[in-house]
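User: Quick sanity check before I run a bigger batch. Here is a single chain. Can you write out its predicted 3D structure?
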Amino acid sequence: MRIYRHDKEWLKNQPPFVKTNVDTNNRVDWTKRDLQILAKVKVAVEGFKYQRKACKNNDK
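Assistant: Done. Predicted structure follows.
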């Protein structure tokens, strides 16, 4: 505000500030993500199966 009041001529000669947009590609490859999650789920299910077998063996 100070420059606007005291040095309008200088302010007029300054180029305007231009914000550049960064072009990002935020698209998701859902097939790839589904396969990654599927692999993790399979590992988790196998872990549960192993734990269940271990629990059954300990109960005997």
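The longest helix spans residues 30-59.

User: Great, the batch can go ahead then.
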